[in-house]
Write a structure and sequence with these properties.
Length: 160
């Protein structure tokens, strides 16, 4: 039966208004679904629907993947940070060995004399207060205080 015959059959049959509308709708759907252009449009819509579902699935999957990578990177960052921190501690211990320095008890006058003697013996060298303090086992603060006095007395000069 052709589409036109189907429509004529729906129209000519005795039916109530609701039955007529139901048959007419069914006939129209048959006619529409057989139209190649309509079929193509329906297929495109189905593909769009699938594409949107696929896209939605891909976005969800991609988001979960990214979140997993972020969690992994955070873990790696923490582990890497701890590793670097431990390496720095090890390196510091290798480079700067721990040593015990015993400061001698000395009067300011005796310390001043020892510092002047050391400076006079090493006139051609630059001596830093920390070097003087270490070599003579005199407290750093006392060494600084005495060097400042020697500078004021012009017995020592600062070389830049």
């Amino acid at each position: 039966m052709s589409n036109n015959q189907l429509i004529r059959a729906v129209i000519t049959e005795d039916a109530t208004r609701d039955e007529f509308l139901e048959r007419a709708f069914s006939a129209a759907m048959v006619v529409i679904s057989e139209n190649p252009l309509i079929k193509q449009m329906i297929e495109l819509e189905k593909k769009k629907e699938l594409s949107i579902k696929e896209l939605d699935r891909d976005v969800k999957f991609g988001t979960l993947y990214i979140l997993d990578r972020i969690d992994e990177m955070e873990g790696n960052f923490e582990t890497g940070f701890q590793y670097i921190q431990n390496e720095l501690i090890d390196l510091k211990e290798k480079i700067i060995p721990t040593k015990t320095i015993v400061m001698k008890e000395i009067s300011k006058g005796d310390a001043k004399k020892e510092i002047q003697d050391l400076i006079n013996k090493n006139k051609d060298e630059k001596l830093f207060p920390s070097d003087i303090s270490d070599k003579l086992n005199i407290s750093y603060d006392l060494t600084i205080e005495i060097i400042q006095e020697l500078i004021k007395e012009k017995k020592v000069e600062i070389i830049k």
